[in-house]
Design brief:
The chain is mostly helical. It has 2 domains: 49 residues; 178 residues, no CATH class. Helix content is 68%, strand content 0%.
């Protein structure tokens, strides 16, 4: 059996021959040799397969045995959407509450990295995923996110008749459960690894929220921070004391709308 380098060279030679044959079939095509020379020049430094790696943060492998595994592969990548959502919401809303949630999410990832270095437990396979598997970073990430969302939805009494807090809370928990299951289904983690990761994520979210709101917020730190010139120029706000931000912003918009029409009249 040819080694990796020989196999790569053979595939490259076949591809070049196929490209030359395709050019020869084009009526009136000229400069075939120059095109082939360009291909040879570009492929002269082609690395062998054993020298290639992938960015595991955005790379997932799955068994090609049906639609469900493909759905699980997309599901296991969905935490990337949360990071993008954090950035968009913070840039658009300038709310310190969301920035604090993101800071906790990043600290939670740092904690997971430390725990993996301490436990040093391998993954179920040696070819799926890099690094250690205990605890699962995906499980810890999603457990923190879902727990924090539930806290934000129910930290104060829900407005009577409002179903959005329940939808967001249930949706985040279901999403987290699907991501956690996908890690086991795709053989990146064991049930024990995702279970420990989920417990760590929930525990960290509870402790972090308590520290932020029972110690730091009550100390007046955030009020002081919001009064700093640079923070004021960036229009950073704190909506923690507003029960329904969407309703509050809508009422402010209605007031602005009425004042604008009043000036026109």
């Amino acid at each position: 059996m040819p080694d990796t380098a020989s196999s790569s060279t053979l595939r490259l030679r076949k591809a070049m021959d196929a490209a030359k044959a395709a050019l020869d079939r084009i009526p009136g095509a000229g400069g075939q040799e120059s095109v082939m020379d360009d291909i040879r020049s570009a492929s002269s430094g082609l690395p062998t397969l054993d020298n290639l790696t992938s960015l595991t943060f955005s790379h997932v492998q799955y068994t090609d045995d049906g639609l469900f595994s493909k759905i699980m592969a997309y599901t296991t990548l969905s935490p990337l959407w949360i990071i993008c959502a954090y950035g968009g919401i913070i840039l658009n809303g300038r709310d310190i509450k969301v920035a604090l949630m993101l800071a906790g999410q990043l600290l939670n990832e740092l904690l997971n990295l430390v725990l993996k270095r301490l436990v040093r437990q391998s993954r179920p396979t040696g070819f799926l995923g890099d690094g250690y598997g205990m605890p699962s970073s995906h499980a810890q990430f999603m457990a923190y996110f879902a727990t924090y969302v539930v806290i934000l939805m129910y930290r104060r009494e829900v407005t009577p008749g409002s179903i959005l807090p329940h939808i967001f809370a249930i949706g985040s928990v279901v999403w987290a459960a699907l991501v956690i299951y996908s890690r086991v289904h795709l053989y990146y983690h064991t049930w024990l690894q995702v279970g420990v990761g989920a417990i760590c994520g929930v525990a960290f979210a509870l402790v972090y929220y308590w520290v932020i709101h029972s110690i730091l917020r009550s100390s007046g730190l955030f009020e002081w921070l919001l009064d700093q010139p640079l923070v004021r120029r960036l229009h950073v706000r704190d909506t923690e004391t507003i029960n329904d931000v969407a309703k509050y912003e809508w009422e402010m918009w209605q007031e602005f709308r009425r004042s604008r029409h009043g000036k026109k009249d």
